[in-house]
Amino acid sequence: MTDTALPLQSQADQRAIAAIRRKNAVWRRILRDPPAAIAALFLVVLVGAAILAPWIAPFDPYASNMRLRLCPIGGARCPDFLLGADNQGRDMLSRILFGLRATLGIGIIAVVVGGGLGALIGLSAAYFRRLDQPLMRLVDVLLSFPSILFGLAIAAVMGTGLFSLVVALSIASVPSIARIARGAAQSIMQQEYMEAGRAVGLGDGALIWRYLALNCWPTILIYMTLQLGQAILLGAALSFLGLGAQPPTAELGSMAADGRKFLSIAPHVSTLPCAAIFLVVLAFNVLGDALRDALDPKLRQ
Amino acid sequence: MISFPVLLGVLLIGFLLLQVVPTDPATVVAGPTATKAEIDAIRNDLGLNEPLWVQFGGYLGRVFQLDLGRSMISNRAVVDEIALTLWPTIELMLACLIWAVPLGITLGTLAARRRGTAIDRAIMAFSVMGVSVPIFWVGLLLIQYVGGAGLLPFQGRNGPIWTADGFMSIILPSLTLGSVFVGPVARMTRTSLLETLGADYVRTARAKGASDWRVTIRHALRNAMIPVVTLVGLQIGFLLGGSIVTETMFAWPGVGRMAVGAITSSDFPLAQGAILILAVGFMAINLLVDVLYAYLDPRIARG
Hints:
- The complex is a heterodimer of chains A (301) and B (303).
- Chain A has one domain: MetI-like fold, CATH 1.10.3720.
- Helices cover 75% and strands 0% of the residues of chain A.
- Chain A is built from 11 helices and no strands.
- Helix content of chain B is 77%, strand content 0%.
- Chain B has 13 helices and no strands.
- Chain B has helices at residues 3-19, 25-30, 36-45, 52-64, 78-113, 118-132, 135-147, 164-197, 200-207, 212-249, 255-264, 268-296, 298-302.
- In chain B, helix 1 runs antiparallel to helix 12 (268-296), helix 5 (78-113) packs antiparallel against helix 6 (118-132) and helix 11 runs antiparallel to helix 12.
């Protein structure tokens, strides 16, 4: 009994060890690349700060005090406000923490929803050969179209607001993820275990989920990271135009637009949210590039 | 070919936009004193009782006759509004491409020639920053430091580009819009040039004793330009997106600013027209890029 169970056990162990090694290799390569390591660390801190914003923000981001209006960074009027106050006398630091939470949250929801849909399209295109042509044509069309126009069209039809913003960003995330998912799934379709799975009588659903999706998801996840930077940038631009998050919501793009009117007297009100967006997107792009190179040098274009 | 379903989709969105107009067109035409029977009669005349797909057919017919309805705010024909704003947008995009593309190609060439050096790393770092910066931050910084110091105008368009005032007023918007464009062009040029520099015909040219820079520019660069033209073509769509933000920031009287204004003020016919023209413009540019492509690479034209 133990004699027959042991080799099986050790085989499973070996597979697990190999899997851990592969995972470690990617991470080790990331850590060996200093800009990517810094970007990853920075993002961990930022995401943590965004999640913990309600607990770590020193003040209420919506509590205004008109006596502290446009107080500069380190101004004598507002010694407790580390990053000064905005045009309503609200604490900039707290607003940026909450803004980060909103901006990151919108981006993540959109990329998860849009990327999930894109992954479904990509996997279906690779699995059902007959769907490949029509689905990928549709994806090409979506991909060629400037995503800000989705934002405009959806804001026009559904009205401006957070929900329209998330819908627009989700649609914008579908095509590139669909392409990547299809590419990854096509190479797995040629593996022998797909054939084996079919031979033992697994249905389409089981094959797609257990064999295709579970093997593709690391690649898809990495491209979602890359897409996240783009989604955040687009979302901020739409909010800046007044088509996304509406004041007084603490969201980085709409905060930047709000502070624009006080550029000459209190530049920090719009510069700080802009700088925050820049750093977040930069970190996602640097990390995404490094992850892509580490995972699959062939995909590099 | 790819444009056809897009065009249909955009037209459908335009049609939907006109459906969500909160006021009933028949009531407006009939006037405030009309009875219910009169309104119903007009509704029949206007074809508003037809099924939606018949109405969509009517809408398509009107669009192809360039009848896009009237703005709900200015009450002028949407086509006239678009005609006014189209040229400023084209002008802004040209004023951006004319410096950003050559600069991007130069930087990319430099990075490829000095591969692995500090120059290469600096140019690539600059390029990543270029794709990460929110375009409105570049605009705000330029407005704050250049416009605020009174060096250049930053509010509106002071005339066509060939007049002195017009030229001065386009500088800051063009710098803003171009700033996000240099990075991707540089990156693509570098990648593409590195590939062609390893090609056989480049080695042949070098063996025949051509100088390094001659090989790079005469033999490699033209072949490396093909993916760059594709990228520029694709990016022009995103340039369109950037121009929407830039126009809004600098009060530039273009299509993008008009579209945003129409959406935020719920002027549905105008929003429909503006989105339609932005999408059609994008498709026209794509067609132009395909033609340019065949010119750069005769192999494509011959199929």
